[in-house]
């Protein structure tokens, strides 16, 4: 008895950790970016402008990745913390939360319409707890951090990478963009 040779079907094995390697779908785990560099920019805004330009030129932007290189955490100090500022901020955030809770309580009130009682109770309770939590938090860290700040992750430069099949065209298009006068 002779067996006929039939091709075997290969079924791909999938894993929740596998990179689906599909355009437009980011990998599930942190992975280094791939692609060929088609442009490098000093600011994110310039890199974004380059990708926008590629999109306007009907370039397959799903093949493009913007990569921030030489990452830095920049913390800009916005002001000095004082007891007055801490307590005002705590009272304000507590008031918003208390107002929200008070309005929710009116939804379950047996009386029709919005009643002032639950809203006022929620507001006063929220202000009180906001003051207490702010005072305890600031008092426990007193002297260690007496300033407000805003943190931002920035890069030294932003590279635009592209899938190798489209990289040459992308580079040519971005060279056209570089030759244009910049908008003020």
From TrEMBL:
Alphabetic keyword roster: Membrane, Transmembrane, Transmembrane helix
Transmembrane segments: 86-108, 120-141
Organism domain of life: Bacteria
Lineage per the UniProt record: Bacteria, Bacillati, Actinomycetota, Actinomycetes, Pseudonocardiales
Organism: Lentzea guizhouensis
Chain intervals with Pro residues compositional bias: 23-32
Annotated segments matching region Disordered: 1-32
Protein name in UniProt: General stress protein 17M-like domain-containing protein
All residue ranges annotated as the General stress protein 17M-like domain in the record: 38-111
InterPro entries: GSP17M-like_dom
């Amino acid at each position: 008895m002779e067996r006929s040779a039939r091709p075997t079907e290969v079924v791909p094995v999938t894993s929740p950790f596998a990179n689906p390697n599909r355009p437009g779908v980011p990998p599930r785990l942190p992975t280094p970016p791939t692609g060929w560099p088609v442009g490098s920019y000093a600011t994110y805004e310039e890199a974004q402008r380059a990708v926008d330009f590629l999109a306007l030129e009907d370039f397959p932007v799903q093949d493009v990745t913007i990569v921030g290189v030489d990452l830095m955490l920049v913390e800009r100090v916005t002001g000095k913390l004082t007891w007055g500022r801490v307590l005002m901020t705590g009272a304000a955030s507590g008031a918003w939360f208390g107002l929200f809770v008070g309005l929710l309580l009116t939804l379950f009130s047996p009386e029709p319409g919005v009643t002032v009682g639950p809203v006022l109770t929620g507001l006063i309770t929220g202000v009180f707890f906001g003051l207490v939590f702010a005072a305890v938090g600031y008092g426990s860290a007193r002297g260690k951090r007496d300033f407000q700040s805003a943190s931002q992750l920035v890069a030294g430069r932003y590279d635009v990478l592209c899938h190798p099949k489209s990289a040459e065209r992308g580079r040519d298009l971005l060279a056209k963009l570089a030759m244009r006068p910049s908008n003020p």
